[in-house]
């Protein structure tokens, strides 16, 4: 199969769809891999590294799309790429269709085969291709939140871990999934007081078993959220609905209950966000303030650490990419139920129910 790795063109996105190690595994199986010139530079992988493992370097994004039967990316195609996607072309990437009607309609029109990393689901019901980026984003949520609690960037002026004689900062985490657990680990490691909330008691029991005693679990309800936001310095939204829009757990009126300089980090921004006041931001302009509350809502948080993120992503996507390349998408999805669940749009037809529900396409 002919596989294309274009350069990501989303604002401040430095990740690349595949490492040279991944390309080597494909060329070893006699597949042809086209890599756009300088596509990997932001992640620390250079054209010469790809050439050494048998890739063909193409100068433009147009050529990569034109020559390839399958496109392997990191982020969803943006408007400039819509017209480059061909009928029957496989596009394997993070799509998050439920948060963008324009993207959904463009991919329907393209009549391509859209396989979304974030809806590939294994036998245990986990999302193996979303997990590594959720791990990165969960840890970064605390790293970034701690930074924006500083006074020069309009935060409360809180050091999360405190110092002897001074109470540590308080972190509230909504959701005890991969993002929430990783955020809790980081916050606890800094010495912060951490409360993690969920409606799934099994997850809360797991958190209670694996995290330190100063990480407190709480059952999530609107009432309990309203009480806790009054006293917490950093609030992380990490709630996931598979393939669908995130629920709005913090409404605009709740911001007035928070102390000035409170920081909210919405890791669910790719799926519409779990705060009513969420709007996507970029690494170039990451924050905005509403009612004296600092919002950090960067839609591609792992893009800030591209070396770590690209390797972590290729580690999990490569087995699926090899199946698609070796067998073709139809046979691969028929034989692998996990991959079959990744199918979102096929030749103009939406085949993932949550997307239909998001935009009333039925």
From TrEMBL:
Active site residues of this protein: 96 (proton donor/acceptor), 270 (proton donor/acceptor)
Keyword field: NAD, Nucleotide-binding, Oxidoreductase
Swiss-Prot/TrEMBL catalytic activity: L-alanine + NAD(+) + H2O = pyruvate + NH4(+) + NADH + H(+)
CDD domains associated with the record: L-AlaDH
Binding sites annotated in the UniProt record for NAD(+): 134, 198, 203, 220, 239-240, 267-270, 298-301
Residue ranges occupied by any Alanine dehydrogenase/pyridine nucleotide transhydrogenase N-terminal domain in the UniProt entry: 4-137
Gene Ontology molecular function: alanine dehydrogenase activity; nucleotide binding
Segments forming domain Alanine dehydrogenase/pyridine nucleotide transhydrogenase NAD(H)-binding: 149-297
Listed GO biological process terms: L-alanine catabolic process
Binding site for substrate: 15, 75
Pfam entry (one): AlaDh_PNT_C
One Gene Ontology cellular component: plasma membrane
InterPro entries in alphabetical order: Ala_DH, Ala_DH/PNT_CS2, AlaDH/PNT_N, AlaDH/PNT_NAD(H)-bd, NAD(P)-bd_dom_sf
Enzyme Commission number(s): 1.4.1.1
Family assignment from sequence similarity: Belongs to the AlaDH/PNT family.
PANTHER family assigned: ALANINE DEHYDROGENASE
Identification of the protein by name: Alanine dehydrogenase
Organism the protein comes from: Polaribacter aestuariivivens
């Amino acid at each position: 199969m002919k596989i294309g790795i274009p350069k990501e063109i989303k604002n401040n996105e430095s990740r690349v769809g595949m490492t040279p190690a991944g390309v080597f595994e494909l060329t070893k199986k006699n597949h042809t891999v086209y890599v756009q010139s300088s596509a990997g530079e932001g992640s620390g992988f250079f054209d010469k590294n790809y050439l050494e493992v048998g890739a063909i370097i193409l100068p433009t994004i147009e050529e990569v799309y034109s020559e390839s039967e399958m496109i392997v990316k990191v982020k969803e195609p943006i408007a400039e790429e819509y017209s480059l996607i061909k009928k029957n072309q496989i596009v394997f990437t993070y799509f998050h269709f439920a948060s963008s009607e324009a993207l959904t309609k463009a991919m329907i029109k393209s009549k391509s085969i859209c396989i979304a990393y974030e809806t590939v689901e294994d036998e245990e019901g986990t999302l193996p291709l979303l997990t590594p980026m959720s791990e990165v984003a969960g840890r970064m949520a605390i790293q970034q939140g701690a930074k924006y609690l500083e006074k020069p960037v309009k935060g409360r002026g809180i050091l999360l871990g405190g110092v002897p004689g001074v109470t540590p900062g308080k972190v509230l985490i909504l959701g005890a999934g991969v993002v929430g657990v990783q955020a809790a680990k980081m916050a606890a490691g800094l010495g912060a007081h951490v409360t993690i909330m969920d409606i799934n008691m099994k997850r809360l029991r797991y958190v209670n078993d694996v995290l330190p005693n100063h990480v407190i679990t709480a059952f999530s309800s609107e009432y309990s959220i309203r009480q806790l936001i009054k006293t917490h310095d950093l609030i992380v939204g990490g709630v996931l609905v598979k393939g669908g829009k995130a629920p709005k757990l913090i409404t605009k009126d709740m911001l007035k209950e928070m102390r000035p300089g409170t920081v909210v980090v919405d890791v669910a921004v790719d799926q519409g966000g779990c705060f009513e006041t969420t709007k996507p931001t970029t690494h170039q302009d990451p924050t905005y303030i509403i009612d004296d509350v600092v919002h950090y809502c960067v839609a591609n948080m792992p893009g800030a650490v591209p070396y770590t993120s690209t390797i972590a992503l290729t580690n999990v996507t490569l087995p699926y990419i090899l199946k698609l390349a070796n067998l073709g998408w139809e046979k691969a999805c028929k034989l692998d139920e996990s991959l079959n669940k990744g199918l979102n749009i096929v030749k103009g037809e939406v085949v993932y129910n949550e997307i239909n529900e998001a935009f009333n396409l039925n």
